[in-house]
């Protein structure tokens, strides 16, 4: 695949998703009920029998163009910053907060949420924020799975997400 080297380079780059309240949230179509930010999504787990790698010869591909920027844009449209996170940001006087989402693209192409970490690499304590991040990752459309030595493998990604208070 001619994009494999480019994809490997892009995967190593840092992706940032900026979310400000409901700014990037999709508006429901006429007559459609709006879903709450904390809606429950079934937990997904990667294949425990397949190794989980960080870098493989043929990385997972998201969407039609095969671009991680496409996944970043998709996640940005889905993300709804919880009110608890916005109020905590405003009370602390900070203008933004960075959280790293760790997820695995499994052997069948499912994105599976693993954890959310603060900038200091400690687990995120805000349960609403973790629930929202988990919701968005688990709602991801299927990816083309990664391939290493002719077999599908799990691949772990870390994606920084920046929440702005404004």
Q: Could you please describe the fold and organization of this structure?
A:
There is one protein chain. The protein is α/β, with parallel strands linked by helices and 166 residues long. It has one domain. The protein is 25% helix and 27% strand. It is built from 4 helices and 8 strands, in the order αβββααββαβββ. Strands 1, 2, 4, 5, 7 and 8 form a 6-stranded mixed β-sheet that branches. Strand 4 (96-105) and strand 5 form a beta hairpin. Residues 1-39 have low confidence and may be disordered.
Question: What order do the helices and strands come in, and which of them pair?
Answer:
Blueprint (H helix, E strand, L loop, with lengths): L3 H9 L4 E3 L32 E2 L7 E2 L5 H11 L4 H10 L3 E10 L5 E8 L8 H12 L4 E2 L1 E3 L2 E14 L2
Summarize the structure.
By secondary structure, the protein is an alpha/beta fold. 25% of the residues lie in helices and 27% in strands. It has one domain (4-21, 48-164).
List keywords for this structure.
two-stranded antiparallel sheet; 166 residues; 6-stranded mixed beta sheet; alpha/beta; 25% helix; disordered N terminus
User: How do the SSEs run, as a string of H and E?
Assistant: HEEEHHEEHEEE
Cα(first) to Cα(last) distance is: 42 Å
**Into which percent range does the helicity of residues fall?**
25-40%
Question: Which radius of gyration do the C-alpha atoms yield?
Answer: 16 Å
User: How many strand units?
Assistant: 8
Low-confidence stretches: 1-39
**Molecular shape:** elongated
* Total discrete domains: 1
Residue fraction in strands: 25-35%
Total of DSSP H or I helical runs spanning 4+ residues:
4
| Structural class computed from helices and strand pairing | alpha/beta
Tell me about the largest β-sheet: 6 strands, mixed
The quaternary structure here is single chain
Roughly what is the average pLDDT, rounded to an integer? 75
């Amino acid at each position: 695949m001619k994009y494999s080297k480019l994809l490997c380079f892009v995967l190593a780059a840092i992706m940032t998703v900026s979310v400000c309240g409901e700014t990037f949230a999709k508006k429901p179509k006429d007559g459609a009920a709006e879903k709450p930010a904390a809606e429950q999504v079934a937990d997904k787990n990667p294949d425990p029998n397949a190794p989980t790698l960080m870098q493989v010869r043929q990385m997972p591909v998201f969407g039609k163009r095969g671009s991680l920027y496409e996944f970043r844009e998709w996640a940005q449209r889905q993300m709804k910053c919880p009110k608890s996170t916005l109020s905590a940001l405003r009370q602390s006087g900070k203008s933004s907060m960075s959280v790293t989402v760790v997820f695995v693209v499994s052997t069948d192409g499912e994105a599976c949420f693993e954890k959310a970490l603060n900038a200091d690499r400690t687990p995120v304590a805000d349960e609403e924020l973790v629930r929202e991040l988990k919701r968005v990752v688990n709602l991801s459309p299927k990816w083309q799975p990664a391939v290493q030595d002719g077999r599908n493998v799990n691949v772990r990604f870390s994606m920084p997400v920046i929440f702005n208070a404004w």
